[in-house]
Amino acid sequence: RGEYPKRTAVSHDGRHVCAIHGNEFILLDDSLRELGRQRMEYANAATFSPDSRLIALASWNKGEIWRVDAFPKEPTNKPK
Q1: Is the Cα torsion angle 17, 32, 76, 59 positive or negative in sign?
Q2: What is the pLDDT of residue 76?
Q3: CATH number of residue 12's parent domain
Q4: pTM recorded for the entire structure
Q5: Which of 23, 31, 37, 38 is the most exposed place for a label (fewest CB within 10 A)?
Q6: CA nearest 37: which of 64, 60, 2?
């Protein structure tokens, strides 16, 4: 059985995609190569700033804002 992301967000400049899969946000470039991951329990929303330099990640009770060029290669949060 294949699994698909529950939601995606595309940067305004078209250079990045963020896929939300399970409890992870997966940042991809425009060739769909993985650039990094961040883990958050109950991950459910991502959006890019109008200039595509920032990405906001959210769950039902937490939020984080990252510079796209500083997005973690490996999740900084350990699974619970």
Answers
A1: positive
A2: 82
A3: 2.40.10.360
A4: 0.87
A5: 31
A6: 64
Residue with tokens 């990405």: 55
Domain count, the chain: 1
- Condensed to tens digits (0 to 9), the pLDDT of residues 1-22 reads 556 678 999 999 999 999 999 9
With respect to residue 14, please indicate whether it lies within any of the assigned structural domains. Answer: yes
Question: Is residue 37 domain-resident?
Answer: yes
- Listed in sequence order, the residues at least 6 apart from 25 whose beta carbon sits closer than 8 Å to its beta carbon are 18, 19, 37, 38, 39, 40, 43, 46, 57
- Does the CA dihedral 19-26-42-55 come out positive or negative? negative
Q: How far apart are CA 77 and CA 80, in angstroms?
A: 9
What is the separation of C-alpha 70 from the centre of its chain, rounded to a whole number of angstroms? 12
